[in-house]
Amino acid sequence: MTSSARVCAVSSNTVPAAYEKSVFINCPFDDDFQPLFHAIVLTVAAQGFTPRCAHETEGQADPRIVRIARGLMESKYSIHDLSRYQGQGAENLGRFNMPLELGIALGMRYLKEGTPAGHNWVALVPEQFMHQKFISDLAGFDPPDHDQKPPTVIRKVAAWLSMQPDFTQPTPTAKTILDAYPSFCALLADAKAASLGTLTWPSIIKSVQVVVSGMPLV
Amino acid sequence: MNVFISHSRQNGSAALKLYERLSQRGVQAWLDTCELDAGEDWNQRVAAAIEAAGAFVVLVGPGAEPDRSQRFEWQEITDHEFYLDAKKPMIPVVIGSSTEIPGFLRTRNAFTVNPSSIDFDSLAERIAEALGKPDATIDPVQLERGRDAREQAVKSLKEYSLELERDDVKRAGLRGLK
Predict the structure, then answer these.
(1) Contact call for A162 and B83, based on CB within 8 A
(2) How many angstroms separate the CA atoms of A54 and A83, rounded?
(3) Which of B8, B76, B88, B150 would best serve as a mutation to test chain A binding (most A beta carbons within 10 A)?
């Protein structure tokens, strides 16, 4: 099987957004990370891109990693958060899903280089150059770092997206996005309450779409 | 006005020639290779120079990617959103016609040059002139295209949202059948 045939084998037929406007978000989905995940979703949408993630295909029969690979292949851009790097639980185990999925994006970046369907990725890392100790192969990429707080994440993601060739202006400033963040969170809280404590991907996208459509631009 | 010249290492020689020609025309330009002494903290000095700059000349290409040092400069420019300040002239000098312009420079009027035959005197002359008219560095056609793209992006997001809702209803129906 050739590499292009392999790509087709895991591609789905339904692509919800234009390839060059799709940004696949790969980050932890637990409650602790949720404020940052929502900050990334909001920033991606506010910058004129379509946020996508593994939630989109939940309930499908394919293994999660296949669904993620498919989502990555349908997206020109991907954001990978590696800020959570320490062991967790009684056994102090590290989780390797994020680096594994970043590896797929990195492979795609070089596999697709020079083709119209190129791919670019960014890894968000913890402050103080900690990534140099736990994922030293990222040396030379100078990934943006953050302090696990929404304002910083919004600023860093907005800055990275603005460097991509498919970014357009006018656009909201990072401050505008940050100002809209509480309204977005309030809409999400309402949606969660309305679905008896479950926040679904469709309701996240519906809420972000409402917030983004009224944003002032410069 | 301090004019920061952003360049990758492969454009070091072109950046230096442009710096010299701009300086000859009385433009106060800032180029890392001319301003920094050995042993100085490059990142710190460049970040400070970018923050102090009143205008930017950005050498882009040839090729798609900036190198590590230029990527740092672009991170500083975009992190502080200097590209959104219409009062700060930002002039892309695109080296080679197949070079892809980063999004944050797209609404700026670019000077495209052939890497094998750059007329630095003429280029510096045009840049010096453009620096005096910040409004003229904005490309209204690209800005209009950006507005259309923005409208399209909001529309696409709405369509995506509706599509997800339809899928959700379908799945709920299937769960009901089970």
Answers:
(1) yes
(2) 19
(3) B150
Reply yes or no on whether the pLDDT at B43 is more than 60.
yes
Chain B CB within 8 Å of residue A157 CB? no
Mean pLDDT over all residues of chain A? 91
Does A167 have pLDDT greater than 50? yes
Let me know if domain B2-137 sits in CATH 3.40.50.720: no
Cα nearest neighbour of A49 on chain B: B153
Q: What percent of chain A has pLDDT over 90?
A: 78
Domain count, chain A: 1
The verdict on residue A218 lying in a domain is no
**What is the mean predicted confidence (pLDDT) over A8-18?**
53
Please tell me the predicted confidence (pLDDT) of residue A16: 65
Check CB contact under 8 Å for B106 and A169.
yes
Is A86 in the B-facing interface, judged by CB distances under 8 Å?
A: no
- Residue pairs between chains A and B whose CB atoms are closer than 8 Å: 110
Cβ–Cβ of A156/B79 closer than 8 Å? yes
Distance from C-alpha of B87 to C-alpha of B54, rounded to nearest angstrom: 8
Q: Which of A164, A201, A212 is closest, CB to CB, to B103?
A: A164
Domain CATH code at residue A191? 3.40.50.10140
Instruction: Using a CB–CB cutoff of 8 Å, tell me whether A60 touches chain B.
Output: no
What is the pTM (predicted TM-score) of this model?
0.93
Report ipTM (2 d.p.).
Answer: 0.94
